[in-house]
Amino acid sequence: MMHDHKVPATYREGKKSFRLSGKRGRALDICATLNHEYICCNIHVLRAVSNCPYDCSYCFLQNYLTDHQTTVVADIDALMSEVTALTTAYPRRFFRIGTWELGDSLALEEQSGCASALVKAFARLPNALLELKTKSACVNRLLDIEHNGRTVVSWSLNPERIIRQDEHKTAHLSERLLAMSKVCGAGYPVGLHFDPMIVYDGWEQDYQELVETVFSTLPTERIAWISIGSLRFNPEMKKLIEYNFPKTRITSAEMILGGDNKVRYVKPLRITMYKHLYDSIIKYGKSGPFVYLCMERWDVWEKIFGHSPRSINHLDYLITSSLHLRFPGLVHEAPELSLYDTNA
Amino acid sequence: MSPVVEQRIIQVSSIISNGSLYRLGRQISHVSSETHRLKAFYSSVKEVGILQPLLTHECSPGEYHLMDGFFRIKLCIKHGIENVPITLFPAGTRPETPLKALIACRHPWLLSSAPARIHFVSLLNKLRIDRRRICEIFLPLLGIEPHEVFLRKYELAARLPEDVLQYCEEKNFSMKQCLQLSAYTEELLSTILSWKSHLAITSSIFEELLSNLAACIRRSGKTLAQTLDKIGADRILSAPSDSIQQKTINIRHAIHRQCFPILTVKNEKMNDIKKSFNLPANASFTWDETLEMKKLSFFVTIKNMPEWKTFIGAAGKDTVDEKVRLLLEEL
């Protein structure tokens, strides 16, 4: 990796180098779907990275970015000024803020050090936590810094077969697990995202083993949350995926266009997949980490968990309540539903 | 500036038309569909021959490749006209010069037709024009961004079989559509195109059949022949009593079943439940057959109070409640 100022013409070309940049425009936003039938967790996203050195076949960046240059925002003060403006405006609310919307939070950390700077800055905030989500094993710079338990280091997880076939250039599962152990040892809470689940011959066994492997690596009390989701993409992505990744089979499954205008597996299949994974998880205790579905329909929630949040704000409240109960001192005050869900 | 072209009158038979290096596909799109104009053109050619010289390039001594005027030369042959005026790029002309002239002649067509541009890029490669020169000089003239990435996309699309590119030309496909077709195997593309005489294939049906069949093949790991055999394609296409429309419906349905097995089974189960409802004839209901939305939509048409009462009576039965519950559970 080197700094390079030539403008790349494609997103793939933009992956070959990265540059540090200042903050351009508004960096803080909400990661939420606009369709009320599909429930999001209402996390905020801080656009601290754009594009990614990894090359996942299903990645939406393939047809999303207009500026293909991989960048990491180095102006931490400018990012934090947006964060503190939000957290001070709503002092009684607790905010989860992730940096992974447009790229991997940690893939370039060894070279940039920007995520570590954010970790230190969040350590001082009373009512927010930072989520760094990654498919890397680049955690060494995080291990000896002051984080005050206010950063959750999360991994996007898939069986090794999917990592090899569709998550090109990312860390192998064993490397991710080792990195997980390291951050756990350094006192960070860990987040797990079994997302996107991908169907293939033998997926049942592989996902079950994945859960078993992860839970044998991590103590459940260190897991902040677990999300489950399945493969989904914009309709125009299908051909692009097939064009960019001629060998992938991920687009050939039985998929339909959802109400949120995303192509996804047919609902009966999604329900089967989620149930299977959730059953594997709850073998390790129902009172453990908060498990939620990412960008999923209310009726799918009901089929998996027997209930569904009323809204994305309600889900935000439920996650915060779980953190409050399970990580004493992390959430600054007991969350009140009316502060999160104004319709409550 | 020394003249680079010559004006001559030569025999039609000495001009290479069908095998011309410069033939860009079927060369049809530039022909005006304005009937009156065409009629006037026919009649003029018949009476006075060709007035506007045909553009030609003497690619090697004595080989006059037609560059522009394919429609006119066709008319000359049809009406027995023996000699035509030509504007000739003589042998030894740098290839870039006639190419620029060709763009100038065919500019509106090249700008409006992606398959024409694909053919033109293919021609540039055939003439071994330097890639840097293609990017810097020719791509902008064709309305394409002057970058290697775009050149590669056009080159990829140029690998489509000729019959497929012709189809793209007929249907006026965009570059994006042409490029998407390049993701399919030549075998699959040609097979579906060969169904044109048996089926009513619009461009959207063409894309649907390709997409669904490709998904079936990718998923199963079977060959196209095995997949078509499983679907029973031959039987559907050769059914003697079915109309083209019916065959089209049947083949789409058969491929859809293969591509969406879970949805097919679920919908069949729900249709079985629906059949047992015994609602009055003026009432019906539907659901989203993609099974994504959890909702049933009921429709009732009434013209008088007795019809309403009949509907309420039928809908209010416990057996109907139970069936509605079953259907909602399936969704």
Structure, explained:
The complex is a heterodimer of chains A (344) and B (331). By secondary structure, chain A is α/β, with parallel strands linked by helices. Helices cover 33% and strands 20% of the residues of chain A. An eight-stranded mixed sheet of chain A has the order 2-4-8-9-10-12-13-17, with helices on both faces. A three-stranded mixed sheet of chain A has the order 1-7-5, with no helix packed on it. A three-stranded antiparallel sheet of chain A has the order 14-16-15. In chain A, helix 6 (203-217) packs parallel to helix 8 (267-282). The longest helix of chain A is centred in the C-terminal third of the chain and has 16 residues, at 267-282. Chain A is globular and about 45 Å long. The model of chain A has no long low-confidence stretch (mean pLDDT 92). With 331 residues, chain B is of the alpha/beta class. Chain B has helices at residues 35-48, 70-78, 96-105, 107-112, 114-126, 131-141, 148-158, 162-170, 175-181, 186-194, 203-220, 224-231, 233-237, 244-259, 261-275, 305-315, 318-330; strands at 6-11, 15-16, 54-60, 63-68, 83-89, 283-287, 296-300. In chain B, helix 7 crosses helix 9 (175-181). Chain B is elongated, with a radius of gyration of 29 Å. The termini of chain B are far apart. The interface between A and B is medium-sized, with 24 and 26 residues.
Note poorly predicted spans of chain B.
Answer: none
Overall strand count of chain A:
18
Structural class of chain B: alpha/beta
Helical segment count of chain B: 17
Biggest sheet character of chain B: 5 strands, mixed
Please write the string of helix (H) and strand (E) elements of chain A. EEEEEEEHEHHEEHEHEHEEHEEHEEHHH
Strand content of chain B: 5-15%
Most extensive contact: A-B, 24 and 26 residues
* Count of discrete alpha- or pi-helical segments spanning 4 or more residues of chain A: 11
- Alpha-carbon distance between the two ends of chain A: 49 Å
**Series of H and E elements of chain B:** EEHEEHEHHHHHHHHHHHHHEEHH
CATH architecture of chain A: Alpha-Beta Horseshoe
How far apart the termini of chain B lie comes to 77 Å
**CATH topology group of chain A:** pyruvate-formate lyase- activating enzyme
Mean pLDDT, all residues of chain B:
88
Spatial ordering of strands, largest sheet of chain B: 1-5-3-4-2
- Radius of gyration of chain B (CA) equals 29 Å
Q: Approximately how much beta-strand content do the residues of chain A carry?
A: 15-25%
Q: Which structural class do you get from the secondary structure elements of chain A?
A: alpha/beta
Mean pLDDT of chain A: 92
CATH class of chain A: Alpha Beta
